[in-house]
Amino acid sequence: MTDTTPAAASRYAVADRPPFRWSDALLRWESILVLLLAAVIAFNTRISPYFLDIYNLSDATFNFSEKALIALSMALLIIARDIDLSVAAIVAVASLAMGEASAAGAPTPVLVLTGLAVGVACGAVNGWLVTGFALPSIVVTIGTMSLFRGLAQVVLGDQALTSYPPAFQAIGQGYIAPGVPVPISFTLFLALAAVFGLVLHRTVIGRRIFALGNNPIAARFSGIEVDRIRFWLFVLSGLMSGLAAVLLTARIGSTRPNIALGFELEAVTMVVLGGVSIAGGAGSIIGVVLAVFVLGLTTFGLSLINVPGIVISVLNGALLIGAISVPIIARRFQRRSS
Amino acid sequence: MPAALKNRDVLLALIVAALIIGVGVRAPVFLTADSLTNMLTDTSFLFMLALAQMAVILTRGIDLSTAANLALTGMMVTLAARSATWLPIPGVLALSIGLGAALGAANGLLIAAVGIPPIVVTLGTLSIFRGLIFILSGGAWLTSKDMSPAFLAFPHSSIFGVPVLVIIPVLVAGGFWLLMTQTPFGRSIYAVGGNPVAARYCGIDVARTQFLVYTLAGAIAGLSGFLWVSRLGVAFTDIAPGYELTVIAACVIGGVSIAGGIGTVRGALLGALFLGVVVNALPVINVSPFWQMLISGAVILAAVIVNARAERRAGKLILPEARRAA
């Protein structure tokens, strides 16, 4: 290290961050995602004249905002070396609770609070099992996924709850202001993404999450309350799932036992494509937001030319594997040539 | 507690036995030979897939694409058998194993040669396989009309009075037992999962072991795909949805450690048997099948808590919380 920092007086000067280099900036995962996003937009504009329409685009965000909200908290969990596969099942339970409350005549604010509270409670169960019993989170959340989804199935059977007040449905279907084509759900996602980004990258808590994801034992020995942070991350994941449940239930106006089926894998795909290391300790919220747009706009563009959703999932799967393997292979060639 | 009860396999076997007897007391029809045979054939897929998944998990991996592989191979062999009507059943069997192994090898290649984490690879191939079924079939359902009588009859046939769907899992289980306990390859699977670095220093080719394990898991999924499709007489995009998680659940209940290196053929079989008994017993005692998921969730959590207690090693740490985090 040749550059001078305030600590240069010591023999072991440690730079707070490495010096800026263009090659590093261009090879960053986020830059690759920006290029990918540009390619997706260019491609979609070519294949359909209806793609670059502000009303179409804003309506397209309805389809991914709920999953994207879950992806934000999932990113924090994966950075902290955990995972929550029960998020979609939490959506089902929260939606169920709201459906029952609505059937009992609860007003809209109570419905929203019910959804959020049930999400928090489910997240707390996950957090308690993972930290209290020292269990691997992937197994615990596969278990609670069955438990929560099973609860919804037992209560609902093959029925659906469909009576929701119009004011509640407006939350999921409405725009931030009359005449402004920006959905409430999308605005919430952008605002919360900014909050998550600030907390993760600019606060002590964010630093601690990275530290415990990189090395939980070292983090514990440095005085970081590892288990307490992990517990609250699961609660946060439950809260975001509850929020997604509010938006999704309000948007489609019904609760079925299979609501949000498969959301957990889609959220994980968004996070991993966003450059968050599945081994923990690395990643950024910007990357996750970019990945959300790449996946969301790919789906929207292809559905404009009537490609069935299941075929789009082939592309998403290939995108996930391709996006991960290209830099790994490139790095291997770099190492070989140097 | 007597020493025998501390062995989790014995405990699990006792619980399964108690469950069967308990249900039998309430509904004696459950204990008839017909009903028990039906339960075994119903669970045959879970037995085989749980064994394959066990081998994968032992290497510290996970295969989320099992059910999608099963569905895709099922569709491919149905299409192949429809256009190549001359193909005899052994040929179809070999084809399903080969196709499944090829799909598994794709996983193995990405994991072992490229070095992408297994959960990411199999998450990706899960959607790719499911989508390919739709593309291959054009979204159509292939029903028994599209299958030859021999194709449909195979899973319902018997050899010396023993159903094929009992014989095949028994053969697969025997094969896995031999492989895991009697061969160097089985040893290397445990070694790779127990400590990959140490395994490498012992001269074990970690990448090769991983590749072969995923290929093997694919072969089993492919075989199950043919049996599944021909047994139900239908092939479409969404057969066995989410079944990969049931398979993983069977492993967890059977004491396979998700951290790798710990697990036995006996345990995985017992875990699968447990889930099979629960699924088949519920309708007999007039409990709505909607309870099935809730019960298996509760059982997974109970099992993993019991497992964690058993795996906890003795030793003193200055900061016990630190190890919990690890």
Count of discrete domains of chain A: 1
Estimate the mean pLDDT confidence of chain A. Answer: 89
Oligomer: heterodimer
Gyration radius of chain B, in Å: 20 Å
Low-confidence stretches of chain A: none
Query: In what order do the strands lie side by side in the largest sheet of chain B?
Result: 1-4
CATH topology of chain A: ABC transporter involved in vitamin B12 uptake, BtuC
Question: Judging from the principal axes of the Cα atoms, what is the shape of chain B?
Answer: globular
* Distance between the ends of chain A: 20 Å
What is the straight-line distance between the termini of chain B? 30 Å
Which band does the percent of strand residues of chain A land in? under 5%
What can you see in these coordinates?
The complex is a heterodimer of chains A (338) and B (326). Chain A has helices spanning 22-27, 29-47, 54-60, 62-79, 87-103, 108-132, 137-156, 166-173, 184-202, 204-214, 216-221, 226-252, 263-273, 285-304, 309-337, and strands at 175-177, 180-183. Chain A has one domain: ABC transporter involved in vitamin B12 uptake, BtuC, CATH 1.10.3470. Chain A is an all-alpha fold. In chain A, a hairpin with a 2-residue loop joins strand 1 and strand 2 (180-183). In chain A, helix 8 (166-173) crosses helix 12 (226-252). Chain A is 72% helix and 2% strand. In chain A, strands 1-2 form a two-stranded antiparallel sheet. Chain B has a domain at 40-241. In chain B, helix 5 (89-114) runs antiparallel to helix 11. With 326 residues, chain B is mainly alpha-helical. Chain B has helices at 3-6, 8-26, 33-58, 66-83, 89-114, 118-137, 149-153, 164-182, 184-194, 196-201, 206-232, 243-253, 265-284, 291-311, 320-325, and strands spanning 142-143, 158-159, 162-163, 234-235. In chain B, a hairpin with a 2-residue loop joins strand 2 (158-159) and strand 3. The longest helix of chain B has 27 residues, at 206-232. Chain B is built from 15 helices and 4 strands. At the A-B interface, helix 7, helix 11, helix 12, helix 13 and helix 15 of A face helix 6, helix 12, helix 14 and helix 15 of B.
